[in-house]
Design brief:
Layout lengths: L1 H28 L15 H11 L5 H15 L12 H36 L4 H15 L2 H15 L18 H38 L3 H8 L4 H38 L5 H10 L3 H29 L11
Helix pairs in contact: 1-11, 4-5, 4-7, 4-9, 4-11, 5-7, 6-7, 6-9, 7-9, 9-10, 9-11, 10-11
Length: 326
């Protein structure tokens, strides 16, 4: 297990460095730079060159890359934002908790709704209820996140104004007590987390249904039925744990989806998280913040996959991490 963990950490560091290197060169090769966004007609060439020199943008890309790599590896410093008067670490430190809250709520809704829908669908296989759930899941799976977000925003914030349309807290949230602020956060969290949760939950439902139907055709399930076990016991006690393996695999795969989806959802709902920070940084050509956001997203995806591997080994005793022969 220890050898497996060390091997995964070393390979993860190499992968992250590769991703950051590619990101660094791609974003620097995009036409335009951070200075051009703030340039005005009164700025002469000498002033522009002075500003570029101050930020090190007048150096060759390879020199900038080596300096950035040295600062990151030796000092652990992600640099200073070109568009905001803050360090990249400060910007990310403010945004990461908000994205974790959104992704945590979306994952919770995903597995709750997806697994419940999959169990109900498999239990009533080939019934009208099963067809309804399968078609609903397929429709949600096919719809892009931004379209679902805009429809939910229109329906539940404007036509039926139940939930607030944007931001993480109300303007008057400071005057509320601790419990009031918590309820206010939940109201603002409802729509963005629901949009992310149900679109990804459709996949969970399909995997759960397929896994349960396959397991319920096995001999040991027929034996349980012959012994007089109830359908509920067969589904929840004998089938569900075995059908859980492909769902656990999805846990690691959801992280890239949720991080990509959160970028769109956070912009639409003005949620102050990593997605919105990354979107604004790309528009402003704020290279240090884009690279810092990529670093955090890469770490979150890799940690999610490692966690899924451990869950997989816990659920299926036949899998022993670190002992597999390559």
């Amino acid at each position: 297990m220890l050898f497996y963990l060390i091997k995964r950490i070393v390979s993860s560091i190499i992968i992250i460095l590769g991703i950051l290197t590619v990101t660094f060169f791609i974003i620097h090769l995009v036409p335009g730079d951070a200075i051009s966004l703030y340039e005005n007609p009164s700025m002469d060439q000498a002033t522009r060159e002075l500003v570029c020199h101050a930020y090190g943008l007048d150096q060759a890309i390879l020199v900038q890359y080596l300096k950035w790599l040295h600062t990151l590896l030796i000092k652990g410093d992600l640099g200073y934002s070109l568009a905001q008067n803050m360090t990249v670490s400060e910007i990310l430190r403010n945004a990461i908790p908000n994205t974790v809250i959104l992704m945590g709520a979306a994952l919770l809704l995903n597995f709750m709704l997806g697994i419940l829908s999959g169990i109900l669908s498999a239990s009533k296989q080939n019934s009208k209820f099963d067809h309804f759930l399968s078609l609903s899941g397929l429709a949600l799976y096919s719809l892009p996140v931004f379209w679902v977000s805009l429809m939910f925003l229109l329906l539940f914030s404007f036509l039926i104004p139940i939930f607030p349309p944007s931001h993480m807290h109300s303007v008057y949230a400071e005057s509320m007590g601790r419990f009031g602020r918590f309820l206010d956060l939940l109201k603002h969290l409802a729509l963005p987390s629901l949009c992310l949760g149900i679109t990804s939950g459709a996949t969970t439902a399909r995997f759960t249904r397929a896994g349960l139907i396959e397991i319920m055709g096995e001999d040991f399930i027929r034996t349980a039925r012959a012994k007089g076990a109830s359908e509920r016991t067969i589904v929840m006690k004998h089938s569900f744990k075995n059908a859980l393996l492909p769902v656990i695999t999805l846990f690691g795969l959801y992280f890239p989806f949720l991080i990509g989806g959160s970028l769109i959802v956070e912009v639409i709902f003005s949620w102050p998280g990593m997605g919105r920070v990354t979107y604004n940084a790309i528009l402003a050509r704020d290279y240090p913040v884009v690279i810092g956001s990529t670093l955090v997203a890469s770490i979150m995806v890799i940690l999610g996959n490692i966690f899924a591997d451990f869950l997989y080994a816990i659920v299926d005793p036949r899998i022993r991490l670190g002992r597999e022969k390559s």
